[in-house]
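Colleagues,

For the teaching module next term, I've prepared a clean inverse folding example: a structure given as tokens, and then the sequence designed for it. I'd like students to try predicting residues themselves before seeing the answer, so please don't circulate the second half yet.
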């Protein structure tokens, strides 16, 4: 029996062609993905609008989902259009106006050699009500901790893919940050510059310019990140994609995380724990409070995803259609 305590309003999940009750399990413990992280996934959000629920940037998420499958050497048994239909059906089946959506493609039960030669590729999709990740801290901003471990390097795999096994590193870093008393982690890359959070991109603001990095800095070029760059330009800000040093971060006027789960949330302090042989150092970002640029972007993003700004209707897929 699987309770939905941590998955509010989740009633059913889609699995291999049919809906199952949320409490129903049945996956074999010897499935390949459970042992080796041989899965790919997406984090997607649906939002409530005056015209009904919409999925934010669904085509882009599905494009990345299929790209990730290719990177993981998986032959997806479904087309992009079919996956789009399954996702919309899942939101409808759970009767959700706004929700988080998790499609998962994985090597299932067959063999347990590292090469999954006898394992079918299977698809599951869940949806549940989930507020913004770290959202309980949105009003005051969040504290970030630079962990001592460096992010997986862009030369090691395609940084455009979301591979399940890679996120073990994210889980460890997130737990470490919380054990140290902080809200979230930040990774440096092998070069010692800012890479990203465990599941979020990092932006800084300096002199009215929005700065974020890209895949050559060992960061996933997130879909929310791309949206924030466009929103920022439309609001009149200069945007730059390039390296961010620790000193750039510490000396920024503002900083914030962005991503599907976290949406947009200000970073107000950063503690540097990147060198375990040295004392940790605390840095206040700007005024130490959420800044005007981040707050303006939060408002603009909310207007875009909720359908209140027709300029960004292009980003919305209506669930009912």
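(Answer key — instructors only)
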């Amino acid at each position: 029996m699987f309770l939905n305590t941590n998955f509010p309003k989740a009633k059913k999940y889609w699995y291999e062609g049919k809906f199952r009750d949320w409490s129903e399990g049945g996956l074999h413990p010897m499935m390949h993905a459970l042992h080796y992280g041989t899965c790919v996934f997406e984090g997607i959000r649906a939002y409530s609008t005056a015209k009904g629920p919409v999925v934010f940037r669904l085509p882009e998420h599905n494009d990345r989902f299929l790209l990730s499958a290719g990177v993981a050497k998986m032959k997806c048994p479904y087309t992009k259009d079919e996956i789009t239909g399954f996702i919309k059906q899942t939101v409808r089946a759970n009767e959700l106006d706004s929700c988080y959506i998790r499609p998962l493609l994985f090597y299932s039960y067959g063999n347990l050699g590292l090469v999954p030669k006898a394992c079918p590729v299977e698809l599951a999709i869940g949806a549940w009500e989930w507020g913004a990740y770290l959202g309980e801290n949105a009003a005051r901003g969040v504290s970030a901790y630079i962990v001592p471990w460096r992010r997986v390097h862009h030369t090691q795999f395609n940084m455009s893919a979301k591979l399940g096994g890679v996120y073990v590193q994210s889980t460890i870093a997130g737990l470490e940050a919380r054990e140290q008393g902080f809200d979230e982690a930040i990774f440096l890359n092998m070069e010692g510059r800012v890479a990203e959070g465990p599941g979020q991109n990092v932006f800084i603001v300096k002199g009215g310019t929005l700065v974020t990095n890209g895949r050559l800095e060992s960061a996933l070029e997130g879909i929310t990140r791309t949206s924030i760059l466009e929103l920022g330009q439309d609001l009149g800000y200069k945007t730059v994609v390039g390296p961010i040093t620790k000193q750039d971060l510490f000396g920024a006027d503002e900083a914030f995380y962005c991503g599907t789960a976290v949406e947009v949330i200000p970073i107000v302090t950063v503690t540097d724990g990147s060198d375990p042989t040295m004392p940790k150092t605390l840095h206040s970002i700007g005024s130490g409070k959420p800044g005007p640029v981040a707050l303006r972007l939060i408002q603009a993003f909310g207007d875009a995803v909720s359908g209140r700004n027709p300029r960004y209707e292009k980003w919305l897929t209506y669930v009912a259609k």
